[in-house]
Backbone:
């Protein structure tokens, strides 16, 4: 990716999809070129959390909400230390941000971090195209000397695909660190970082959990070196079919019977550890307004999603696995995609969506309490 930042809002930009569809607009953020997988997010708020979510590594995010940047960028809401998206696509960027916490504009933040974006695009037409044709590779090119269309398309088609991509180690922490419990410490959790969002260990700390965040390369011995009451596997980018190391570590945890909780990529890892397959969705689920049913209670939740892969597990029966009986605990009401798994004979469960609620909603916060209950039961 090559970038510069001067006068970006007056510079022409072109978005090229790998099937040859082209959209023209103006540069937004840094000027240059970038490549990734084109995906769309249906969130109307929370763009700062989306941009800094490591799960979006190597993806170009199209915002379906027409106005983006209205609240600027602050110093509190980032989910990691940097922006992870490869590129950003908006229709009408805010001219002036309006929020008491805003410190700078979104355009300025994208430029400062070298993120190439495009504005003035018909994002409704682009989203419809991706829904019909599926997520695909894309390039954004901006500058006063753009390549010809044939050259741009050739470069897009040379970019790596998301299927088969092993990306967790690229976004995870390199060194272990600890998030201390708030108030009285009740439990210790080993969290395997596959691309963890900052709010996740915070939600556990709120419940009296001391969280030891470990690199994606952590072994079973590393996990148990912290003497955990529970083990957590985080969200993260890439194709779960490549995550053999994480699957092996999770199987080691399941063998010991330690309470286990997984979110998003962690759900896919649990699926693989139990013997289920995974597959790539046509265009995925991304946004903070996705309906999911908790089949254990019948309750319907509005939930936050960011995934392009899913677990291939039967919805209509209990399955026998090497670790006992397992069932689908949550399902997406839009398309019946598996959104959660639970073991019936061991203290382990996972969900495909994001109960840490950054940037919302809060319907699924109870899942952290469910994890606490498993650890309390194990201790008793």
Residues:
């Amino acid at each position: 990716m090559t970038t510069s930042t001067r006068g970006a809002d007056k510079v022409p930009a072109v978005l090229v999809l790998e099937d040859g569809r082209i959209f023209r607009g103006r540069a937004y953020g840094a000027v240059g070129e970038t490549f990734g997988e084109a995906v769309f997010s249906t969130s109307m708020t929370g763009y700062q959390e989306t941009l800094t979510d490591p799960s979006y590594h190597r993806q170009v995010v199209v915002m379906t909400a027409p106005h983006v940047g209205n609240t600027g960028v602050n110093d509190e809401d980032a989910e990691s230390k940097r922006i992870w998206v490869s590129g950003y696509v908006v229709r009408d960027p805010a001219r002036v941000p309006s929020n008491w916490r805003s410190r700078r504009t979104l355009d300025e933040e994208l430029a400062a971090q070298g993120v190439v974006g495009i504005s003035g695009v018909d994002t409704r037409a682009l989203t419809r195209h991706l829904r019909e044709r599926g997520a695909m590779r894309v390039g954004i090119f901006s500058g006063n000397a753009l390549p010809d269309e044939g050259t741009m398309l050739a470069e897009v088609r040379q970019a790596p695909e998301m299927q088969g991509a092993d990306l967790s180690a690229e976004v995870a922490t390199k060194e272990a660190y600890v998030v201390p419990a708030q108030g009285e410490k009740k439990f210790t959790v080993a969290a395997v970082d596959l691309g963890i969002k900052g709010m996740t260990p915070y939600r556990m700390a709120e419940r009296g959990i001391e969280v030891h965040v470990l690199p994606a390369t952590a072994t079973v011995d590393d996990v148990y070196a912290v003497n955990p009451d529970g083990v957590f596997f985080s969200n993260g980018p890439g194709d779960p079919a490549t995550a053999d190391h994480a699957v092996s570590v999770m199987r080691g945890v399941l063998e010991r019977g330690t309470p286990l909780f997984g979110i998003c990529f962690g759900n896919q890892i649990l699926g693989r550890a139990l013997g289920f397959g995974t597959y790539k969705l046509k265009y995925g689920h991304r946004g903070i307004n996705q309906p999911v049913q908790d089949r254990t209670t019948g309750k319907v939740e509005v939930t936050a999603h960011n995934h392009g892969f899913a677990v291939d597990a039967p919805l209509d029966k209990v399955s026998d696995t090497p670790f006992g009986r397992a069932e689908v605990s949550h399902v997406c009401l839009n398309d019946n995609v598996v959104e959660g798994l639970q073991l019936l004979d061991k203290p382990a469960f996972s969900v495909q969506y994001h109960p840490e609620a950054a940037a919302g909603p809060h319907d699924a916060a109870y899942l952290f309490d469910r994890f606490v209950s498993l650890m309390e039961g194990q201790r008793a």
Summary: The chain is about 20% helix and 35% strand. Residues 189 and 276 are 26 Å apart (CA to CA). The longest helix spans residues 366-379.
